[in-house]
Amino acid sequence: EVQLVESGGGLVQPGGSLRLSCAASGFTFGSHDLSWVRQAPGKGPEWVSSIDYNGGKIRYAGSVKGRFTISRDNAKNTLYLQMNSLAPEDTAIYYCNAQIYGTDYWGEGTLVTVSS
Question: pLDDT, tens digit, for every residue of 3-13?
Answer without folding.
Answer: 999 999 999 99
